[in-house]
Amino acid sequence: MRHQRGNAKLNKPWDQRVALLRGQVSTLLLHGHLTTTGARAQEVKRIAERLITRARSGKTHDSREIMKVLYTKDVLYSLKNKVLPAVKNRTNGGYLNEFKVGYRRGDGAVLVRLEVPDFPEE
């Protein structure tokens, strides 16, 4: 059964939520790390790992499907030239590391750092 398999609403309307997640996935793949709240991190990790799995095939169709999510071609190049070599030894899934950093000052939300292991520093 597929009960409760949907995405988290993140207290945002659909268009704002999609824009937020696309931006955070792009930042993660471009820079190799991202610090955000726990709920957002779960959704970003879910999307990013699907994109990395698609990018591993190297087919043109998969590149076009990836570009539907990412904003610029710079992020696609970073995905192919930096992220894929960093995760080449991993099996399907589990490409990202997730660390609890602490709590956000102000509202006490849990902060999580997502990062690509062995991402080359600039």
How would you describe what is shown here?
The longest helix has 20 residues. This protein has a three-stranded antiparallel β-sheet with strand order 1-3-2. It is globular and about 40 Å long. It has four helices and three strands, in the order αβαααββ. The chain has a single domain, classed as 50s Ribosomal Protein L17, Chain: A. The protein is 49% helix and 15% strand. It is of the alpha+beta class and 122 residues long.
Topology of helices and strands:
Layout: H1 14-31, E1 33-37, H2 38-57, H3 60-67, H4 73-86, E2 97-103, E3 110-115
In brief:
By secondary structure, the protein is α+β, with helices and mostly antiparallel strands.
The CATH class label is Alpha Beta
Count of domains = 1
Give the name of the CATH architecture.
Alpha-Beta Complex
User: What is the element string, with H for helices and E for strands?
Assistant: HEHHHEE
**Class by SSE composition:** alpha+beta
**Stretches with pLDDT under 50, minimum 5 residues:** none
Which topology does CATH recognise? 50s Ribosomal Protein L17, Chain: A
Relevant CATH superfamily: Ribosomal protein L17
Q: What form results from the Cα inertia axes?
A: globular
Mean pLDDT: 93
Separation of the first and last Cα atoms: 45 Å
Total E-strand runs:
3
Query: How does the major sheet shape up?
Result: 3 strands, antiparallel
